[in-house]
């Protein structure tokens, strides 16, 4: 029967490599104190961690994220809402111009969520009218626009039966006779905010 031959590589001789001088080896198994202290290892770990974190892209400041969110809402959610209103009223969408977002509130009623808006719109006759819009915050199709109509004089300073806006956006006006979906539940209105999807690239 053939004898077994060890394939374990031999360790370097003491003194062959500078980084093993003074350490335990196969030929010299007497343990000796390492030149590295615990503090040295801690410092090396901290330095390595800082270097790793420096390679991760940092999210933009809060103000920039808010600006991006508002621009995204103007470009998608609110223009879709105006397009649906124009279609329902036989108006060319290009004749309606979103001028300003005057008020905004995120309405959370588990498991549903809504966005309520007051927006200033330039109408085809050149006048400026405040609209109320209720949209789904997570989608951007016309079917996700629950309501988009101009407010009447009687709606001024009217929170309607919207408990969320009553607690969190007192200046946001609601239509008196129109059926919007969110805000009719008296719940514990915490400071919920719409997640900013622009942060996804920084996760």
TrEMBL record:
InterPro entries: DUF3615. Residues 79-175 form the DUF3615 domain. Residues 1-28 are annotated as: Disordered. Residues 1-10 have a biased composition (Polar residues). It holds the Pfam family DUF3615. This is DUF3615 domain-containing protein.
């Amino acid at each position: 029967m053939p004898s077994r031959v060890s394939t374990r590589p031999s360790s370097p001789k003491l003194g062959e490599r500078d980084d093993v001088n003074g350490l335990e080896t196969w030929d010299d198994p007497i343990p000796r104190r390492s030149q590295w202290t615990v503090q040295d290892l801690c410092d090396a770990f901290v330095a390595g961690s800082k270097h790793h974190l420096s390679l991760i892209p940092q999210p933009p400041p809060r103000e920039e994220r808010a600006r991006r969110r508002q621009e995204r809402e103007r470009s998608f959610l609110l223009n879709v809402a105006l397009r649906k209103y124009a279609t329902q009223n036989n108006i060319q969408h290009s004749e309606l111009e979103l001028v300003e977002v005057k008020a905004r509130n995120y309405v959370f009623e588990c498991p549903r969520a809504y966005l309520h808006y007051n927006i200033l719109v330039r109408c085809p006759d050149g006048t400026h009218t405040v609209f109320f819009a209720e949209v789904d915050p997570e989608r951007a199709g016309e079917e996700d626009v629950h309501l988009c109509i101009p407010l009447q004089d009687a709606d001024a300073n009217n929170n309607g039966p919207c408990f969320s806006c009553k607690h969190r956006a007192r200046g946001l006006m609601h239509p008196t006779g129109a059926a919007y979906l969110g805000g009719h539940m008296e719940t514990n209105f915490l400071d919920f905010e719409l997640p900013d999807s622009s942060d996804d690239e920084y996760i």
